[in-house]
Amino acid sequence: MARLALLMLAVALICTAGCSTVLPPELAQPVSRQKLTYYPGLVKGFEHSYPPRTMLVLPATDHCLANTPSDGADGEHQVGVTTDARGNVLQRLYLGPITAQVQNALVAAADEAGLRARPSDQAGYHAQSANADYVLQSEVTRCSLKKSRISVGDLGPNWQTVAKFSLSVTIYKPPFRVPFWQGSSAQTYTDPPDTGSGLDEDAAQIYDQPGQVLSVAFTRGVEEIFARPDLHELITDDRVLRPSAGP
Q1: Given 8, 154, 181, 190, which is the most exposed site by the fewest CB atoms within 10 A?
Q2: Domain presence at residue 170
Q3: Residue 154 carries which DSSP code?
Q4: Is residue 9 part of a domain?
Q5: How far is CA 188 from the centre of its chain?
Q6: Is 90:153 a contact under the CB 8 Å cutoff?
């Protein structure tokens, strides 16, 4: 009986070891620092469609990460978590300041649209001193990540990352103080894609890092601003009030 009990215990230990969740190497640390990158060209159809007007892009305001826990060292803030199948947190995901990336991405997207954009270090819109046809002011309203362990049909568990990014934009036309145009863009990107009734059994992860998934949502959020038909029509039909400034 003693030998049988020992044998059963050994089998149980082997099964436990074999059936436990195998964590990828990147989850070895309790904290993972992610990067936000702009991937030009994800949104199609608006490229080179705007008239060559000048646009001044002000520094972005971050109303998202600024309200999340900070590591207190490099100015990084928690942007999300990685969880196991039961919802237990395996890793906290951190991201550094993103205002410069947002501003630069808006400049790049405006140039891609056909405008002549340049960044500005002005803290806000100053109607009388803005040497441009338009001035763009932006606010990040959402920036979040979650990587989860989920079940995929008969294939067993898999990892899925959901990224959300939202941006609010106000465009002014100097010398007027009233906004020329206001709009927002809210993007959610899932890797692997979700069909609505769960993951496709043939789905596979495209990106290795959660920050890359967030970068897709971020890029789409920025480019969708200039893909808006109402903004395109408004600027295309607009009559400039001053000689066009240089780039």
Answers
A1: 154
A2: yes
A3: G
A4: no
A5: 8
A6: no
**How would residue 63 be classed by pLDDT, with cut points 50, 70 and 90?**
confident
Q: How far apart are alpha carbons 187 and 194 in whole angstroms?
A: 14
Which one-letter amino acid corresponds to residue 242? R
In a domain, 178, yes or no: yes
Instruction: Please check whether residue 114 lies inside any domain of the structure.
Output: yes
Structure tokens at 99: 């205002």
The residue range of the domain holding 72 is 51-237
Number of compact structural domains in the chain: 1
Residue 1, Cβ density class (10 Å: 0-12 exposed, 13-18 middle, ≥19 buried)? exposed
Tokens at residue 19, please?
């059936």
Whether 25 and 105 have beta carbons less than 8 Å apart is answered as no
- On the question of a cis peptide bond just before residue 175, with omega within 30 degrees of 0, the verdict is yes
CATH of the domain at 153: 3.30.160
Residue 152: the pLDDT is: 61
Distance CA 196, CA 183 (A): 27
C-alpha Rg value of the chain to the nearest Å: 24
Whole-angstrom distance, CA of residue 98 vs CA of residue 36: 7
User: Distances from the Cα of 12 to the Cαs of 5, 8, 20, in angstroms?
Assistant: 11, 6, 12
Half-sphere exposure of 45 (CA within 13 A, CB side): 9
